[in-house]
Structure prediction request, 181 residues.
Amino acid sequence: MKLTSRTLTNALAATAVAASAFAFTPVYAAGDGDSSTTLPQCRKGKVWDKSKKKCVVVKSNLLDDNNLYEAARDLAFTGRYDEAIVTLSYASNKSDPRVLNYLGYSHRKAGRIDVGMGYYKEALRIDPDYTLVRSYMGEAFLQKGDLASAREQLVEIEKRCGTGCAEYAELKKQIDAYKVN
Prediction:
């Protein structure tokens, strides 16, 4: 199915709950190493365009891939997983490991762990050194009850960035907190 701006508008409307009364709510960005940046959160159906410094309706010709990626990441970190997925569908480079990573993250967080794992595997096929994907994949393995595979991802992260990187620390924390049922 080809997505048009009308299709996107309908999809965003279908996933939206009630719109907030305020145009902006501060959101603290996470992932990709920077958790200190405060970003505006747009009303449902819109995303933040960093270059224009305002909320815009998503259209394939309005935002470049980097802005789409950042907007989708922000949507995902605020729990708006289906909107993040729709936003990423507008990326012109569907093979960008960052796009694949947040498709995986959004699907996994929305409860579709196996779908998310498929995106993670594709991202790692393209860039095996992408440690953020490995960290999220490790979390997915934990969700599936596969502690051994999560530990394998931790070892792979350590090989690539050591024990001092954020991705290693986060997955190690998740593994240490994991309780075998």
Q: What stands out?
A: The chain has eight helices and four strands.
